[in-house]
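Subject: Sanity check before I submit

Could someone independently write out the structure tokens for this chain? I want to compare against mine line by line before I put it in a report. The sequence has 398 residues.
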Amino acid sequence: MQVDAFFSFTIAVILLLTGKIVTMNVLLLRKYAIPEPVVGGILCTAVVAAAYAFTGQQIVFELGMRDFLLLLFFAGIGLKADVRSLLAGGRPLAILLTLAIVFMLLQNFAGLGMASMFGLDPKAGLMVGSISLTGGIGTTLAWAPIFVERLGIPNAGELGVAANTVGLIAACVIGGPIAAFLMKRHRIVATHDTELDIGASFEKPQSRLDYFCVLWAILALNVSLIIGLSINSLIELSGFTIPAFVSCLMAGILIRNLMPYTVGATIQRLWPGVEDGLALISDLALGLFLTMALMGLQLWQLGGIFIFIACTLAVQIALTVLYTVAVVFRLMGRNYEAVVISAGFGGITLGSTATAIANMTAVTQQYGAAHRAFIIVPLVCGFFIDIVNAIIISAFVG
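---
Independent answer below. Compare away.
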């Protein structure tokens, strides 16, 4: 059964509202900073899977709006990014990228080892390594035909999609508990800075947004998308490809930091809620994107490879948690910013950039802003890591 785009988007709104209401009223979910979209999204995934199990009917949502929401969200991050914070994040960015590269190697060795244990072609294990987990669904679909045609692994696509499905769900769940554990274990003091990059703080009184605040925010986001997509098209002409959301992030940063100061100051003076308008729209875009991403999961695709996927992903998730707590947190500075980055690291290595940011947003809503983390993590996730991952995968395949 095909659900058209309008009804799919309406269902996503209902699910996000459900997740918001449940999270507001269940202290345990807030304590462990479980992202609001996860509650409604996983509920929908479970219902769809149950419908297939009992009736054999596949429910497929038309999710064309999802990709636009991702672009909108990253344009909003760019528009709130101060270039001074970006420059200050140079060394931490290099450290985080190095940590992610090392972990991708661990992921692939773990995948090779688990495939060998189950009597499969060891290279099939790469599809449950950095290809599907760090790379995400796009990298999975790009590499699957190569594994089928050149390496003779007929179920490569199913392996990758199944691993990405389980990894995405796990990434949504582990970020908040990791942050809560680190905060308690190392007695990290929350900043309680209510000027969040994305979303609204639980402690901050809600600002009075008016017509012009929201309209200015929409205009700025649309201009960022226009410039960002133009940059992406120019880059593609050179034969080099980057994800479209990265170019929209770059466009937002350029607009925020190159716009004449007097113009920006005038807008802020006349409509001081513009920053809150950007935060609100970005938060909605992220929430709806992640909800729709979870709606699109088809758990029945796990099928006959369930045991292999379950065992391998259990190993990969355990590696992520141990590596984050023992290595990432320590090398990123053992402070509150390191806690927020650690919450997002599972999104980097198991889910997607949006998952990483959703986990970080949930943590900062609970404990306070972490401005540098919201610049470093998207750049590592969305730009550098895709390039390095392609090199690593090619080396392993070779």
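---
OP: Matches mine. For the report I'm noting this point. Residues 156-185 form the longest helix (30 residues).
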